[in-house]
Amino acid sequence: MLFIILHILNADYSFAVDCGSNRSIRGSYNTMYEFDSTNLGDSSYYVTSQTRWGVSNVGKLYQAPNDSKIIYSNEKIQNAVDSELFLTARMSPSSLRYYGLGLENGNYTVLLQFAELGYPDSQTWQSLGRRVFDIYIQGDLKEKDFNIRKMAGGKSFTAVYKSYMATVSNNFLEIHLFWAGKGTCCIPIQGYYGPLISALSVTPKLYNLVGRPDVFSNAELKLATDNFSSRNILGEGGYGPVYKGKLPDGRVIAVKQLSQSSHQGKSQFVTEVATISSVLHRNLVKLHGCCIDSNTPLLVYEYLENGSLDQALFRDNRLKLDWATRFEIILGIARGLTYLHEESSVRIVHRDIKASNVLLDTDLSPKISDFGLARLYDEKNTHVSTGIAGTFGYLAPEYAMRRHFTEKVDVFAFGVVALEIVTGRSNTNNSLEESKIYLLEWAWDLYEKEQALRIVDPRLQDFNKDEVLRAIHVALVCTQGSPNQRPPMSKVMALLTGDAEVVEMVTKPRYIAEWQYRDGNSSYVTSSYFGSTAPEFTRQKEIDPLTQSPAITGSSHEGR
């Protein structure tokens, strides 16, 4: 699979053309657009010396003063990713075809770039011209009576992008723009009526094989997300913002714009994406693929209608989740982690399990997102929540203090999320009375008083007490201080479902006891619990503005 990916990423299996231009240019996202300056005759063609692509023209412009098939413009083009591509355009009296020659068989994205250069935006009769033509890809009609200016909201000199999927089966691709006698012929002068195109690009897609990711072009994702409009932002995590988008084939996607550059080269990055995308489970968000021709890497995921679990539980517009639904969410997260840790051919420690990294589908089934992202970064380049890959409030002690991580850091975080689902509140809430600010402390206090059910979300009027107590107990077992005391996720699943006996003996972790040992200025030292080699940290009554979790400061910043 790696050989196939690297093979298709090779430039020989894609091409781009700056139509009508006499020189090649490199686009802003590293796409090389080749020149296309040949002034084709009434029935002629041109093929590049490398025989990678060709172009043909049929027809004679009626009474045109110079019969030129190339239009030039110095107008400023609105909405253009690469404005230099719109200085020229190729026009045809009747039929204009571009061909991809010797392409690797497979699926491709065909991106066509248009701007109307022939009709001015003015209050004169010259602005009344209309250019109408049809677009065929591989012989299939994609656009009937396509009008560039109409697509641009009635404006000339405004970029219009059209993206299509095409299948190459005989190493050959045809893009056909065809004038069918519609529109005007004599405005602003004779011979401005045929199809016109400014640039095009053809890039491979990696469909069909399980685990093979899609490689999207940046222009394609810009089109899908309305140029990464702020209106399409779904949220922002430690790795970067996420945008909602829609592909030409109708798929709704979520595009994660990684805020940090990977330490890997492009081919290695795609290889890691291929590895991650091969991890498939009903409780994991599907990774469709990636984009590598943008300034920062982009990851493309399936879109889930009901957003993230933290929004469902904690926000003002939260969903109404009854206990049966919440328990299924807890079980689903446990299943997903069991698969990542113990069942997948690629064993993955997530390292940032939290409510915002659990998404809900149409049926409110949970899917874990962002798994495997730590594989794309080295230890010097992990995300911003803590300086290590994780988020305050969900960090296991051994990981927070010693940067020691195993799958048990996910088990710890799962326990915190399970308690959040039971209580309907976040792990830290500074607006509550002091005894309730920190969820783990509050839960342990009530558990030791045999009043554990008092932590249940008051919005839950009807619930299965046995299931709730089992979930609370398992969550407290998962958040034990020593990783050796935490069960593997397969055991967690068995405990939750009742297939394994819930042991009643569970003791408060030492880190909880030491949190509660406060001196006069409400601080405490944790170094005795974590060992003499651990840095000395002092906990203060402050909330981290980024994470809404307790700010942790200390005399050492090692491992932060």
UniProtKB/TrEMBL annotation:
<keyword id="KW-0472">Membrane</keyword>
<dbReference type="InterPro" id="IPR000719">
    <property type="entry name" value="Prot_kinase_dom"/>
</dbReference>
<dbReference type="GO" id="GO:0005524">
    <property type="term" value="F:ATP binding"/>
</dbReference>
<dbReference type="InterPro" id="IPR008271">
    <property type="entry name" value="Ser/Thr_kinase_AS"/>
</dbReference>
<dbReference type="GO" id="GO:0004674">
    <property type="term" value="F:protein serine/threonine kinase activity"/>
</dbReference>
<keyword id="KW-0067">ATP-binding</keyword>
<keyword id="KW-0547">Nucleotide-binding</keyword>
<dbReference type="GO" id="GO:0005886">
    <property type="term" value="C:plasma membrane"/>
</dbReference>
<keyword id="KW-0812">Transmembrane</keyword>
<keyword id="KW-0418">Kinase</keyword>
<dbReference type="InterPro" id="IPR051824">
    <property type="entry name" value="LRR_Rcpt-Like_S/T_Kinase"/>
</dbReference>
<keyword id="KW-0325">Glycoprotein</keyword>
<dbReference type="Pfam" id="PF11721">
    <property type="entry name" value="Malectin"/>
</dbReference>
<feature type="domain" description="Protein kinase">
    <location>
        <begin position="228"/>
        <end position="502"/>
    </location>
</feature>
<keyword id="KW-0675">Receptor</keyword>
<keyword id="KW-1133">Transmembrane helix</keyword>
<keyword id="KW-0677">Repeat</keyword>
<keyword id="KW-0597">Phosphoprotein</keyword>
<dbReference type="Pfam" id="PF07714">
    <property type="entry name" value="PK_Tyr_Ser-Thr"/>
</dbReference>
<keyword id="KW-0808">Transferase</keyword>
<dbReference type="InterPro" id="IPR011009">
    <property type="entry name" value="Kinase-like_dom_sf"/>
</dbReference>
<dbReference type="InterPro" id="IPR001245">
    <property type="entry name" value="Ser-Thr/Tyr_kinase_cat_dom"/>
</dbReference>
<protein>
    <recommendedName>
        <fullName>non-specific serine/threonine protein kinase</fullName>
        <ecNumber>2.7.11.1</ecNumber>
    </recommendedName>
</protein>
<dbReference type="InterPro" id="IPR021720">
    <property type="entry name" value="Malectin_dom"/>
</dbReference>
<feature type="signal peptide">
    <location>
        <begin position="1"/>
        <end position="16"/>
    </location>
</feature>
<keyword id="KW-0723">Serine/threonine-protein kinase</keyword>
<keyword id="KW-0732">Signal</keyword>
